C-alpha cells in the first residue's frame, strides 16, 4: 500500500514532507514491497527529499523485501551525495541483502572508486574496512592492469591503423597520379581529335566545292549533249542515206562489168565519177577502162577484166 509519503518521495516533493505534521506522520511506513519512503526516495535519486526524511527521523536501517537498506540502491545508482548523506545518519555499509551483498561489495563489483572512497571513510567496523580496502586495492590494481593492457592493445591497433592508413594514402597518391596522367592523355587526345576534325572539315568543304563544280560541269555537258542531239541525228540520217545510195551505186557499178552487150566499141568509164553507162544485151563481157595513174598527162585508158575498186 502506497501512502502519500511514498508518492511524494517518488516525485521529489520535499515541500509536501515539510508541511506534513511531525507527530501524526509515520515516516517509516512500507508499501507492498516493504519499501519505506526513504528507500523510495533513494531509488528515485531524490537527494533533497531523502535529506528531509532523514531530518524528520526516517530509519536508514529498515530493509525492503530483498533485505536491501537505503544504502544499497544509493551505491547501485552511483549517487555519492545520497550515500554520504545516509552514512552521516549511521547507515551500515556492511549490511547484507538476500544475495549476501553489502554496499561495499556492490561498490567493488561495479568498480565505483569514488563510492568506495566514500564508504571507506565511514566503515562499519575495522575488519570490514580492511577487507574492503584490500578489495579496493585489488580492484584498483586489476583495473590499472586492464587499463595498461587496453592501452597496449590500443597502441598496437593504432600502429596497425596507421600502417593501413599509410598504404591507403600511397594507393590514393598512385591513383591520383594515374588520374592526372589519364587526364593529360585525354586532353592531348582531345586536342588531336579537334585538330583532325577541323582538318577533315576543311577537306570536306573543298570536296563539296569540287562536287559542286563537277555538278555544274555535268549540267553544262548534259545541256550541250541535248543541244547536239538534233544535229547528230541529222548527220546520222544523212550518213545512212549516203550509205544506202552507195550500196545501190556499188551494186550497179559491179553489174555493169559483167553484163553481156553488143556495143561496137568500148565506152571508157571513170569509176570515181560513178557515171552510169548504157548497157546492151551481148554475149561477151564488156571490159572496163580507167585512166592510167602512172601517166599523169596521158588520157589513155587501160582495159581491165574486172571493175576497179570503188573509192
TrEMBL record:
Matching entries from SUPFAM superfamilies are given as: Ankyrin repeat
Start-end of each ANK repeat: 66-98
Residues annotated as coiled-coil are 144-171
Q: Highest taxon of the source?
A: Eukaryota
Gene3D superfamilies membership:
Ankyrin repeat-containing domain
**Keyword tags:** ANK repeat, Coiled coil
Q: Which PANTHER family match?
A: ANKYRIN REPEAT DOMAIN 26, ANKYRIN REPEAT DOMAIN 36-RELATED
Return the protein name. Answer: Uncharacterized protein
Instruction: Give the organism the record lists.
Output: Hirundo rustica rustica
Amino acid at each position: 500500500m502506497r501512502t502519500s509519503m511514498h508518492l511524494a518521495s517518488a516525485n521529489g516533493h520535499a515541500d509536501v514532507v515539510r508541511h506534513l505534521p511531525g507527530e501524526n506522520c509515520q515516516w517509516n511506513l512500507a508499501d507492498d514491497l516493504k519499501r519505506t519512503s526513504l528507500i523510495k526516495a533513494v531509488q528515485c535519486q531524490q537527494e533533497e527529499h531523502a535529506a528531509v526524511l532523514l531530518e524528520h527521523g526516517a530509519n536508514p536501517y529498515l530493509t525492503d523485501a530483498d533485505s536491501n537498506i537505503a544504502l544499497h540502491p544509493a551505491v547501485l545508482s552511483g549517487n555519492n551525495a545520497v550515500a554520504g548523506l545516509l552514512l552521516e545518519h549511521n547507515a551500515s555499509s556492511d549490511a547484507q541483502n538476500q544475495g549476501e551483498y553489502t554496499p561495499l561489495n556492490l561498490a567493488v563489483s561495479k568498480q565505483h572508486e569514488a563510492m568506495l572512497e566514500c564508504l571507506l571513510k565511514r566503515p562499519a567496523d575495522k575488519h570490514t574496512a580492511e577487507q574492503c580496502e584490500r578489495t579496493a586495492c585489488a580492484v584498483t590494481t586489476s583495473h590499472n592492469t586492464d587499463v595498461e593492457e587496453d592501452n597496449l592493445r590500443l597502441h598496437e591497433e593504432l600502429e596497425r591503423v596507421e600502417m593501413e592508413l599509410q598504404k591507403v594514402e600511397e594507393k590514393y597518391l598512385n591513383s591520383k597520379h594515374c588520374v592526372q596522367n589519364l587526364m593529360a592523355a585525354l586532353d592531348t587526345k582531345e586536342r588531336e581529335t579537334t585538330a583532325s576534325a577541323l582538318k577533315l572539315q576543311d577537306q570536306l568543304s573543298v570536296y563539296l566545292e569540287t562536287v559542286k563544280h563537277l555538278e555544274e560541269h555535268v549540267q553544262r555537258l548534259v545541256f550541250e549533249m541535248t543541244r547536239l542531239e538534233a544535229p547528230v541525228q541529222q548527220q546520222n540520217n544523212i550518213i545512212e542515206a549516203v550509205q544506202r545510195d552507195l550500196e545501190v551505186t556499188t551494186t550497179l557499178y559491179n553489174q555493169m562489168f559483167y553484163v553481156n552487150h553488143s556495143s561496137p566499141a568500148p565506152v571508157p568509164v571513170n569509176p570515181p565519177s560513178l557515171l552510169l553507162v548504157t548497157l546492151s544485151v551481148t554475149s561477151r563481157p564488156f571490159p572496163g577502162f580507167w585512166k592510167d595513174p602512172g601517166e599523169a598527162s596521158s588520157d589513155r585508158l587501160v582495159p581491165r577484166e574486172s571493175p576497179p575498186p570503188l573509192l
